[in-house]
UniProtKB/TrEMBL annotation:
Gene3D superfamilies: 3.90.1200.10
InterPro entries: CHK_kinase-like, EcKL, Kinase-like_dom_sf
SMART domains found in the cross-reference section: CHK
Name this protein carries in UniProt: CHK kinase-like domain-containing protein
Amino acid sequence: MIMEETHSWMNTEILEAILKASSERTSDKLTVLSTKVTKGVEEGKNNCSAIYRLHVDVEDSNKVTTKSFIVKKVFDFAIGWYRDKENSAFRFVLPQIEQFVETQLSPRLFLSLDSLLVMEDLAEKGFRNVEGSLLNFDHCALAVEALAKFHAGSIMIHKSDPRLIEETVGWEVFKDNPNLDVSIFMKSMFSKFQKEISTWPESDKYAGYFSTLVDEVDGYLENLTNRGCRVLNHGDFWLNNMMFRYSQGVCEVKMVDFQMCRFTSPSYDLQYFVASSADLDVRLHRLDELYGLYLDTMNRYLPGVLTEEQLGRCLHEDAMAYWYGMTSALCVVLSDPELMYRSDGQDFNSDVFDRFGLMMKSSGYRELIPRVLDDLARRGLLSTGRG
């Protein structure tokens, strides 16, 4: 067998465990001919882990095939909370949720170690990320339906095992973690955004709103996990963390990356998703339809669990999550290539903040945001001042 030795995590024992767990090794007749490791995502798009694609050439009954797996190797700064969150989410939470809703929402997990996850390669089944554009209603509908199933399943688990949902997987990762001080990051994003739109003649009237929004960040984060109807949120639900399959149009979605899960209102995921990932038509014309689909799906599995009035109140309380998604993840989605933020495990620092400030100058972002702000103001969700 030819094996690439440049990655310390790759050895014969791990390979055998992967093949056994994935049911690829069903007999002694299966022979591993070679392995190859390539990058799973473009360099610079890794926030908490390095993603690799493991290719394994196997021979069975004189037939040679290539199997592919995704390997997620966590960066050192995130090992502790990665182990507690994503590892536990894949091993203990997702199997129960998927059984409850009778839907596979995520890739199959084959191996989990302290700093390593090995899972199925969804690309082999035709799934892919949406690159360089926002999601139309058909994509958003699939995403929100999957999200509702995830939320509903977490409520079901919470009834019998609240500690698993609240403490093992849903604890707030940003508290007491100097490497991931989201308070500083959010305040910086709002300040950068306020400074940028103050130079836009059609939007400068909203700058004052975001100037004073900075003062509300700490209070919002402090109470994030203590409000109203609570579910296990994905926590980072935007288009980069979902993959779609197509057959005469988009037909299926899978959720990936569960290291940011938190136990809070379902509206956090919804607000962040719409702000970061929905196209203009969805934002201006089809939000009620989208939220209705979410409610219908939730109540199909748990009748009466959430009313339209309750969801509306939650969405209002979680407006901060919308502003956060709009000033951070949306910048990445719409960034001009030369302004794109590249991560690979960097801590939040002034250089990162400045890069997001530059991405706010991207042509796609500059074109979209004024129309979004005007629509929010029209609906009474944004004012030209605070006070």
